[in-house]
Amino acid sequence: MLAVGCAGSGPGPGSSPRPNFLVLLVDDLGWTDLGCYGSDFYQTPNIDRLASDGVRFTHGYAACTVCSPTRAALMTGMYPGRTGVTDFIAGHQRPDAPLKPPDWTMRLEHRHTTLAEALAAEGYRTAHVGKWHLMPRLEPDLMPEYAPERHGFEVNIGGNEWGAPGSYFHPYSSRSGDRAVSPLPEGGTEGDYLTDRLTDEAIKVLEEFAAEPFLLYFPYYNVHTPLQAREEDRAMFESAVDPSNRHRNPVYAGMLAAVDRSVGRLRSKLEGLGIADRTVIVFTGDNGGLDRQGPDGRMGHPTENAPLRSGKGSAYEGGVRTPTIYFWPGVTPQGSVSQQPVITVDVYPTVLEIAGASGDADHNRSVDGVSLAGLLRNPEQQIQRNALYWHYPHYHNGGATPHSAIRDGDWRLVHFYEDNRVELYDLASDVGEMRDLASEMPAKAEELRAKLDSWRAEVDAQDPLPNTDATTARQP
Hints:
Mean pLDDT: 92
Low-confidence stretches: 1-14, 293-299
Strand order of the largest sheet: 6-5-7-1-8-9-2-10
Number of helices: 12
Order of helices and strands: EHEEHHEHEEHEHHEHEEEHHHEEEEHE
Helix content: 10-25%
Shape: globular
Radius of gyration: 21 Å
Largest sheet: 8 strands, mixed
Structural class: alpha/beta
Distance between the termini: 39 Å
């Protein structure tokens, strides 16, 4: 566990107030879904302004191709391969696949110190508003033990076991009453939109916390399915659809507009409270955009990640590359753009360094992320990092079969477990991963495979297992 200073620690007389943190995580946000990332249809002026105020990373990555592992990674600074949370909870079932997943972890375990716990121990107020999805859904009696309130958040609004709402409209559940967004304060009327309601609640948190240092973690349910937007937001885009555009779904555009409106409202409230100049904002996504039809025909095609290959639930860049923006008022040079690869696990050490949090060295050795604080001061500074890694020993309707991957410089290698093959791509010349160079450059493929295997051993990543019960199983 992270050993941090006592709750009363803080700046001495005459010191500057400690920074606040607003961490925004958008569900299923594709790499090109924002105006500042090149969308030819979606409109995100408030997020674009955030990017122009801070550092926009063109090579920002989620820790996994699906959501729960990335959420655990953000909370702990550890890769999914290390936490054991390697799939969304509770995952897909493929009884006839040649491999089966390991006995993976379907919860955020208390042996880890979360970002909220580390900051709370430093005297920070902490609040969670939005999607959690880190509770053991298959063990309902245990779920309360793993709610946000048990992981360092004194306030939890809307965070439970579900990965998506039954509906984005009040009362935010399906017709049968399941997939309800809870807990929510009483109130609301038919037609209220979930993102607007959660933003209302987040603003109340800001008003309550304004006089003290705080962490507000706001993981949006948008833009995850079901595809539902406010009628006025959908109508705003309907007449502008151009079949020649890469992006052309007016409902999805409306869902993004709701997120953008929320970002604008939150920043306006920070300004109104007089705390904007000491509030660090982190904005990113939990995996790539949902841009393909799944084998079962249910996933739909709400967005397009081109020029990246594929999308959410795949082994390729489209499944893990996502917009990433950091804004540290008075520190980040305005309008900075960095091409250095960054990833979800970097949020944890970055926030703790900016906060000035103390830490136990033994714990910190298990944190896989690197602090970006120096880079945020000077975007030309190089990150000292070995490589980026992904581990997904599962199947997914987005097309993924069990795999692990590494990005080292501009090289990206994917190892597929079913047949033990590797694919090698040079992202500098082939960002769409169309030309597999493994057979042309066997030495480079072998080098990266060895590095990937060494990392898997280091973090004790769980491999998939032979599925001896499968009736139609192929031998890997």
